[in-house]
Amino acid sequence: MCCYLLQCYLFHLYFQRGRRNISRVKLGYVLWGIGMIALLEFFGAFVHIFEVTYDEKNFVYPYKGNVHEFVNALRRNEKPEVEPINEYKYAFILTQPQKCKENADDTLRIVYIVKSAIENFDRRTAIRNSWGIEKRFFDVPTRTIFVVGTHRYDQEVEAKLKLEAGIYKDIVQADFIDSYYNNTIKTMMSFKWLVNYCPNSKFYMFVDDDMYVSVKNLATFIRNPANYPFYLMESRKVYSAHKREIKQSDLMDYSDINFNNKSVTYDLKSKTSFTEDSTIHESTNNNSRKNNMHEKQEVELNENRKTENEYLLRLFNKPTSNRKRQLLDFELPDDIRLFAGFVFMRSAPHRHKFSKWYVTLKEYPYHLWPPYVTAGAYVLSKEALLDLYYTSFYTKHFKFDDIFLGLVAKKADIVPFHCEEFHFYKKAYTKHSYTYVITSHGYGDPNELLQIWNEQKALGNA
Length: 462
Ligand SMILES: *[C@@H]1O[C@H](CO)[C@@H](O)[C@H](O)[C@H]1NC(C)=O
Ligand SMILES: *[C@@H]1O[C@H](CO)[C@@H](O)[C@H](O)[C@H]1NC(C)=O
Ligand SMILES: CC(=O)N[C@H]1CO[C@H](CO)[C@@H](O)[C@@H]1O
Description:
Layout (H helix, E strand, L loop, with lengths): L1 H15 L7 H19 L2 H5 L18 H8 L16 E3 L13 E8 L5 H8 L13 E9 L4 H14 L2 E7 L5 H15 L3 E8 L2 E3 L1 H7 L14 H6 L1 H4 L21 H4 L6 H8 L9 H22 L5 H7 L10 E6 L27 E10 H11 L8 H12 L4 E2 L3 E2 L15 E3 L4 H13 L4
The structure holds 2-acetamido-2-deoxy-beta-D-glucopyranose (3 copies).
One 2-acetamido-2-deoxy-beta-D-glucopyranose (NAG) binds next to β4.
């Protein structure tokens, strides 16, 4: 519109030239104007103008309507009233049907589903030899599965993959082209595989093949997510004395945690007899929702916090007490809907063209995303897995997998649970900075992963 008006104006000037001279100044203004408009357009200013204000209550994303009934019908294997609007119907090429069912009545604790690229053979080897080891803790039965797409034109790499799958029997392959913008397909094919071939686990961890994972810390986290890792940090007195430092903490609001229960409100605080320690919660309560900043700032913030954490870890390095034991013995109920990782509560779509993450208004009209968990690593309870899977049938496809799951979760009324120890960037490594780390991004180098995993394991942190 604006551009059109400007063009008209220019033509107008051009045809008038015979009659009178345009001053250089005037032309300068016009060029300046065009420049500004081009710049604004580039940074998406005009798109911003037409954005719809995100409002939790009035948010709609197709399918437009309540889907709970349909989801429940699908879960009961019945025909829903309204046909699904979105399904990822790609065939499985490799399925590993035996993977989770070696013993018919096995209940698994955690299943790792690793999003991997076909050619990352070395990374998979490193994971199998580090955090992906299946029999590490006798009381925490786990499975590790790698999910890949296809490489249509590279027969050699495909053949190598088949060989690898034959040896380790831990590779699931689906028939879609493996690429960045197909990550949603990969994620949803993973869900499909889990629901069909591996429904006998209590938790499911989705993780990229360039992540460090502490199985030990994850196992602890899923026992008591609300208080991780604070209940491990001993001595309330010491903690209170350093409230000033801890106040920066960017944690979810614990006061109203209910984990999206279906029938009961689980008051974790009272269940874990934590009343005595209420100060701990209050001190972390306040600064909760400050995720409304850009990712870069977030990283800086976390980097600044690093020194505090290191300081605290030194302070809290004390022997186990009874209270800690008691908290460790806590177990989340089976019907809990946990969807946890590093959560962005209020982040905005990229509107400047040429961004890798550029999103048109047609794809998504709101000025903010719903809360979403960054894609590198997140953990789901079985109930959350099932509800998200069937709700995805009623959620319009979106190209970014983490945003897509955020949209699905919103529809399913599952509020993502934030935990800072899922580091979506590479947390600076020192022997002691990884004590409570659950995951850290940035371990694409297999040797580095093996090295730090072994070191952390020796320290009792992995
Ligand atoms: C995603 O996979 C589908 C199915 O193989 C393919 O048709 C499509 O081109 C892929 N998209 C991208 C962006 O690679
Ligand atoms: C929480 O923050 C608000 C403003 O951000 C402040 O007024 C209030 O005193 C804080 N509460 C606590 C318990 O620190
Ligand atoms: C989010 C959620 O589902 N909350 C429910 C928890 O349980 C109580 C008691 O049944 C319900 O009223 C809430 O709606």
